[in-house]
């Protein structure tokens, strides 16, 4: 959903929070897993990306141009006026590149198709809402732990096939329940337990299992204060 015309992180958050509220209002538990992709843009397998582009119909001169852009890449580091030795870059899309975000979306699109084709996770009417994605921010939704583990396994299998990795320790599980106050979780990723939390950020927006709006308000105030101080410390003094 990211980096597309007229779409933003607000849409990704809406697509996650609305199904949660829908199920909670009907007294159904909901499990949310927020997957953290380790250095997502830096670990894209370039040969696999070119394969996927060709699969989706990018051929001819355009494909050759992208192939040329990502062939024989080298980089160096400038620090304190000194330049390091040049080294090869064999993975990743260009930092800040105009095409980089779009290329990453192409790279993970098949994962989203695999999730939808599995028929697992949450559904509204006949629409699958089992995943809400903005670039490398992937959220999974299911009403059962068994179903969620299957969704996680799909993501793990895809990451192993296409040579990138999610971080189990930086990923989070949130369990929304009106009935059970003592929730637990045994969900695993690469055989490691994913931490169970009561609140976490998704696309910069705070999620809370208690639906406490005050937490979101306080978080927004902290962000505003931090941003204002950064602006003032830079020497800029806007009139308010």
Largest sheet: 4 strands, antiparallel
C-alpha termini separation: 34 Å
CATH superfamily placement of the domain at 9-45 and 91-209: Reverse transcriptase/Diguanylate cyclase domain
What is the alpha-carbon Rg in Å? Answer: 21 Å
Q: H/E order of the elements?
A: HEHHEEEEHEEEEHEEEEEH
How are the strands of the biggest sheet laid out side by side?
Answer: 8-9-1-10
Q: Which runs of at least 5 residues are low in confidence (pLDDT < 50)?
A: none
Question: What do you see in this structure?
Answer:
This protein is α+β, with helices and mostly antiparallel strands and 240 residues long. It has a domain at 9-45 and 91-209: Reverse transcriptase/Diguanylate cyclase domain (Alpha-Beta Plaits, 2-Layer Sandwich), CATH 3.30.70. It has helices spanning 9-25, 46-55, 60-69, 100-117, 145-161, 213-233, and strands at residues 30-37, 73-75, 78-79, 82-83, 87-89, 123-124, 127-128, 131-134, 137-142, 166-176, 188-189, 192-193, 199-202, 205-208. The strands form six sheets. Strands 8-9-1-10 form a four-stranded antiparallel beta sheet, sandwiched between helices. Helix 2 (46-55) crosses helix 4 (100-117). The protein starts with 8 loop residues before the first helix and ends in a 7-residue tail after the last helix. The mean pLDDT is 86. Residues 1-207 form the Reverse transcriptase domain.
């Amino acid at each position: 959903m990211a980096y597309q015309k007229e779409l933003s992180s607000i849409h990704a958050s809406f697509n996650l929070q609305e199904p949660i509220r829908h199920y909670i209002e009907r007294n159904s538990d909901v499990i949310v897993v927020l997957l953290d992709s380790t250095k997502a843009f830096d670990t894209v397998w370039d040969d696999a990306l070119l394969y996927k582009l060709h699969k989706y119909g990018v051929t001819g001169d355009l494909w050759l141009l992208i192939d040329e852009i990502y062939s024989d890449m080298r980089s160096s580091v400038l620090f304190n006026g000194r330049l390091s030795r040049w080294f090869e870059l064999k993975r990743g899309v260009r930092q800040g590149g105009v095409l980089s975000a779009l290329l990453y979306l192409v790279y993970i699109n098949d994962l989203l198709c695999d999730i939808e084709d599995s028929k697992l996770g949450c559904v509204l009417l006949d629409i699958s809402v089992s995943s809400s994605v903005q670039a490398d921010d992937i959220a999974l939704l299911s009403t059962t732990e068994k179903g969620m583990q299957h969704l996680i396994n799909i993501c793990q299998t895809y990451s192993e096939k296409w040579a990138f990795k999610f971080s189990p320790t930086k990923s989070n599980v949130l369990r929304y329940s009106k009935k059970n106050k003592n929730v637990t979780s045994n969900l695993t990723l690469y055989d490691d337990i994913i931490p169970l939390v009561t609140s976490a950020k998704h696309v910069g927006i705070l999620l809370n299992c208690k639906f406490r709006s005050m937490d979101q308000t306080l978080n927004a105030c902290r962000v505003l204060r931090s941003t204002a101080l950064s602006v003032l410390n830079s020497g800029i003094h806007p009139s308010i």
